[in-house]
Design goal:
alpha/beta, 352 residues, 11 helices, six-stranded mixed beta sheet
Length: 352
């Protein structure tokens, strides 16, 4: 009896081992698919956290995280908390931040070909300005951005003049202290004003303290940067509407270290987000107009005669840009020709 029991026990153990060995096991250390290493990146944005472009940048980061299954995690540092506006590009080059967004104009002279994007050619809106800026940057592939991986470029709607006192004529510009940066400083000079070189983040305080009398800016800044609270009127100077082109770029070495599938995902998201940035500029301009309307700020139109005068005054800036670019061996003339043609095409449907 004892022998039978022992025999039965032995058979049971064998059966258990047989079933256990034949049963499909969960993935062990050897059979498991290799887990993808997390990629953590920093993104420096000079816009304040409440600004629409910071929100679009944050959505971009979230979309990349989503499409990479959480593998790529991007932390956005807004308000210049990681690198200031004029330090952002070099910060990306040096690896202070992995990714950065700022204006080319904040590092004057560093981008001799792309500064042509900021010329007063009469951009009709932010969607068109963004499309044109991104297209030209991609087409000409300037060597001046070779030290980073340039993701894309976007650009705000036409700059207008917000001032503390009415400006209805070119003569009213004489001696006016106007906040400007990059190419718009030269626009101020050509119109007879005195440029006060400041980034948008410092403009409101300058107007408040009397350091400046006016600012050249897209309508969105009147709300987004609270500048509508410290000006009294807006001159509709879209006839010479300039833009400010913004880069979104990544440290070149850091980009090269990313897996090929991650690079492909980021580039796919980039292509979609260019459109979102442009639309965000349009929407922000519309909100800016509503905002200053609520503040009872007047909008001063320029007569046809005045428009012609303002256009004539800034015209030499365009040719000067092409000449200076040529002296540096750059295709400034070709760049300007394509820029003007693209702007004309964008304005045509509007009959302007």
């Amino acid at each position: 009896m004892k022998i039978n029991n022992i025999l039965l026990l032995g058979l049971s153990i064998c059966a258990f081992l047989y079933v256990g060995c034949g049963k499909k096991q969960g993935p062990g250390p050897e059979g498991a698919a290799p887990q993808k290493a997390a990629v953590k990146l920093t993104y420096s944005v000079f816009f304040p956290p409440t600004h629409v472009q910071t929100k679009v940048a944050t959505e971009w980061a979230e979309e990349i995280k989503k499409r990479t299954g959480g593998q790529v995690q991007i932390t956005v540092f807004s308000g210049g908390s990681l690198t200031k506006a004029d330090q952002c590009y070099q910060g990306v080059v040096d690896g202070v931040s992995d990714i950065g967004m700022s204006a080319f104009a904040y590092t004057r002279g560093r981008f001799p070909l792309l500064e042509g994007l900021d010329l007063p050619v009469g951009y009709p809106n932010g969607v068109a300005a963004t499309r044109i800026a991104n297209t030209l940057a991609a087409k000409f592939k300037p060597a001046e951005t070779k030290d980073v991986k340039l993701f894309y470029v976007h650009a705000h709607g036409p700059g207008v003049l917000g001032s503390k006192r009415p400006v209805a004529r070119l003569a009213d510009m004489k001696g006016l202290k106007v906040c400007a940066s990059g190419e718009s400083e030269r626009i101020v000079e050509s119109l007879g004003g005195s440029p006060v070189s400041l980034p948008q983040g410092e403009t409101c305080e300058a107007l408040q303290k009397g350091v400046a009398d006016a600012t050249f800016c897209p309508t969105e800044t009147l709300k987004g940067w609270k500048q509508g609270e410290v000006i009294n009127c807006v001159t509709d100077s879209k006839c010479i509407g300039y833009t400010t082109a913004f880069f979104v770029a990544m440290n070149k070495e850091k980009w090269a270290q990313l897996p090929a599938d991650v690079q492909k995902t980021i580039e796919a998201v980039n292509a979609e987000w260019v459109v979102k940035h442009g639309q965000a500029w349009n929407d922000a301009d519309a909100e800016g107009l509503t905002y200053i309307s609520g503040l009872k700020r007047g909008i001063i139109p320029l007569t046809a005669n005045e428009q012609a005068l303002w256009i004539a005054k800034v015209a030499p800036l365009l040719q000067d840009y092409a000449t200076r670019a040529a002296q540096k061996g750059l295709p400034g003339e070709a760049f300007l020709k394509e820029l003007k043609a693209a702007v004309a095409e964008a304005r045509a449907p509007q009959g302007k």
